[in-house]
Structures are given as structure tokens and as C-alpha cells.
Design goal:
394 residues; Rossmann fold
Length: 394
């Protein structure tokens, strides 16, 4: 099957449907279509591959006006994609006017009106759409974008400059109207290069969560310094004075948490001990942080509590502690940061309003798309403390 040069995807066979059958799902040759829709080795996001394939079916008349397309669950079975990925592709096409959703009935093919208001596409570059806080951030952006009929292109950088640059070029090629960008685990100079690519083409950019030093630009983040200060104070109030701190020093957010931790120690006249600080020069990595957890827990007599700069670090400590026959808070106390949905551990942490961060980022980019010319906006959201059962009173 030869590829379509314009899209890079395999061409659709001339006949996919048997119009004597009742539903498009029943008409699809499952084995053939699964291989056609998604190339899992491609750098192109899977939702966009599905979106492109659906658009081709409609434009070529294979999916006809008023046809009911397969349900989200049927597309999950057909493609092997996550339901959220399928939903994003369908919602984007609904925003573009190719589909309409009817509650209780399904999703149907429509034809975009030539005279309808011009649609806009917003790009979002996150570290990893599958993990950490990125899915919740993207959902906040997506829900807000849908209300104003903006389509969304979501890209994962995997914390790599080279992938962020690739996605930046692709977003520019797709004529996006604005970009929400979470800086990668690269030096500030390289992240500034990504932003500059868009600015040179008058494409507005909003930074989400992380900031870039010496760059005056719209950004949405949370009060990381204050949140860490409060968590450290909580540990001190519980009787802890030997508090280890584990973080990645490359990110502005975690550096601010480290500063908040040190300030709380200082204000309570507790000496800062660099010997119980683990400072990693790159992004989070399960294997490396498992080693940090093992070495830290082996030295637990030097400390009574651990401040993990985000919840994924804390989760790694729980896993390693279990392997070592230790438990929190019986053997040592621990706190995290983010309040991810970690149902397996009762972690005391600081809740970050990640969804709201996505909402506010989309509001800022929408204002810029509509022509707002005022100076750079800084939106700093408050986090709140969540007490569970990972800290002992001593």
C-alpha cells in the first residue's frame, strides 16, 4: 500500500464500507484499518494521526454526510489507542466542523461551513502527555479551548530540546495561532531558542509551570517557594529538624521549592545540612532516582524526614523502601509535592492546581490571539496543603 505524499500516512483503500450494513464500525476491515490509522513508531502524535485519517475519510466521501462514526470505545478497540487520545481527535474535528456530537445518539459527519468563523489551532508542548502532571494540565487547556472552538495540537518533548524543536517546527508548519510551552530539561538558552522561533513568526507563547530566566513573557505557575516553605514548616512542627531534600536542579519550579525549604530551616534556626541534599542535574528518571532512594534510606540515621520535590520522587522512595523492608512513617517520614492521583500511598503533599494552570494558560493565549497588546502577564496560583499518613510526630 503506497503512502500519501501529502500526509505520510498509507492511502485508504477505495472501498472500506459496505453500505448495506448499519454502522461504519461494522463496515471497517479491522486488521487493515488498524495498520493504516496509527504508526506507533512515528514521531507524529497518535491523536493527530487518527484525526488526519478521519479527515481523509470524510473528504474522500468514504464517511458520508450524516453518517454515524464509530464510538470512542470502538475506536479504542479498532486502533489500540487510549480513550483520551481518541477523544482529543474527535473533539478537534468537532471544533473544525467535520463532526457533530448528539447526546445519547453518537457522533455524526457534517460538512464545515465555508462562511463560518475562522478556526484557530493552539499548540501545547508538554514533557510527557502520559505521565506526571502533564495529562491534567493538557485537559485544563483542552476544556477551555473547546469552549471557544479552538482546536488543540498536543506534543510531548520527553524533556528533550531536539524533540521540542521538532514539534515547534511542526506547529509552525500547521499555522498555529498560539503555543503553550512547558520548558524542557535543557539550559535556559535552548528553551529561549524555542520561544524565539514562535516570536519571529508573531505566534504568541505562554509558559506553563516552569519559567525561563531573563525572559519577559506570559507565564502561569504556582507559588512553589511558598508551598515548600509551608511543607517544611509542617515537618518542623512535627518535631523534625534533620530533613533531607531530593530534587532536580535543572527546573525553575524545583529550585524554588529548594529555596523555600532552606528559608523555612533558616527562619526556625535549623542549620542547613548539604550532606542530606540530593541534587540531580537532569529530569526525573526512575532508575537514577531509585539509586538515590536506596542510598538515602541506607543513611536514614542522619535524618528523620525526606522532602521529595515532587510526588513521583516520593513514589520511587516508597517502592525502594518496600524492597528494603522499611515503611513510611514508621521508619522515616516523607512528604511530596503536586498531589498526583497516587492511590497506592497515603502521601502528605502540597496540591498544585494543575488543571487550573491549564485553564489560565489557555485564557492568556486566547487573549493574545485576539490581539491583547499589554505587557507580559504573570499568573501565580496558590497551592494547598494535603495531610495524609506519611509523617510521624517525634
Amino acid at each position: 500500500m503506497s503512502p500519501d505524499r501529502s500526509t505520510g500516512f498509507p492511502r485508504t483503500p477505495e472501498k472500506v464500507l459496505d453500505n448495506s450494513l448499519n454502522t461504519l464500525y461494522d463496515c471497517l476491515d479491522k486488521a487493515i484499518v488498524k495498520s493504516m490509522i496509527v504508526d506507533k513508531n512515528s514521531p507524529i502524535p497518535q491523536y493527530f494521526q487518527l484525526q488526519t485519517w478521519l479527515t481523509e475519510q470524510i473528504q474522500e466521501g468514504i464517511f458520508k454526510l450524516h453518517d454515524k462514526i464509530p464510538t470512542e470505545e470502538e475506536f479504542v478497540q479498532l486502533t489500540g489507542l487510549a480513550r483520551a487520545t481518541v477523544r482529543q481527535a474527535i473533539q478537534n474535528l468537532a471544533n473544525l466542523g467535520y463532526l457533530t456530537r448528539k447526546k445519547g445518539l453518537g457522533t455524526f459527519v457534517t460538512i464545515p461551513q465555508v462562511n463560518q468563523e475562522k478556526q484557530t489551532i493552539v499548540g501545547i508542548i508538554v514533557p510527557d502527555i502520559r505521565a506526571g502532571y502533564a495529562p491534567e494540565l493538557a485537559r485544563g487547556v483542552e476544556d477551555t479551548a473547546a469552549k471557544s472552538k479552538h482546536s488543540l495540537m498536543v506534543c510531548s518533548s520527553d524533556e528533550l530540546f531536539i524533540k521540542a524543536e521538532f514539534h515547534a517546527n511542526r506547529l509552525i508548519e500547521n499555522a498555529v495561532s498560539g503555543v503553550i510551552y512547558v520548558p524542557t530539561a535543557s539550559p535556559d538558552a535552548k528553551n529561549r531558542m524555542i520561544v524565539q522561533k514562535f516570536k519571529e513568526r508573531n505566534i504568541p507563547v505562554v509558559l506553563a509551570d516552569r519559567t525561563i530566566a531573563d525572559l519577559e513573557i506570559d507565564h502561569v505557575t504556582t507559588n512553589n517557594f511558598d508551598g515548600a516553605y509551608k511543607l517544611t514548616t509542617y515537618l518542623i512542627d512535627k518535631g523534625h529538624s534533620k530533613i533531607a531534600f531530593v530534587f532536580s536542579n535543572i527546573f525553575s519550579t524545583e529550585r524554588l521549592r529548594f529555596e523555600g525549604y532552606k528559608k523555612a530551616l533558616q527562619d526556625h534556626r535549623i542549620a542547613f545540612d548539604p550532606a542530606i541534599v540530593v541534587s540531580h542535574p537532569g529530569p526525573f528518571n526512575d532508575e537514577q532516582f531509585s539509586k538515590y532512594a536506596s542510598s538515602t534510606l541506607k543513611q536514614r540515621k542522619k535524618m528523620t524526614a525526606i522532602f521529595a520535590a515532587h510526588d513521583r520522587i516520593a513514589l520511587t522512595f516508597y517502592a525502594v523502601a518496600k524492597q528494603m523492608g522499611l515503611s513510611f512513617p514508621d521508619d522515616i517520614s516523607i512528604v511530596g509535592y503536586d498531589d498526583l492521583n497516587l492511590l497506592t500511598i497515603p502521601l502528605t503533599t502540597m496540591h498544585q492546581p494543575i488543571y487550573e494552570m491549564g485553564v489560565e494558560s489557555m485564557k492568556l493565549i486566547t487573549a493574545r490571539i485576539h490581539g491583547a497588546k499589554d505587557g507580559p502577564k504573570s499568573v501565580v496560583l496558590d497551592s494547598y496543603f494535603v495531610e495524609r499518613d506519611s509523617v510521624a510526630q517525634i
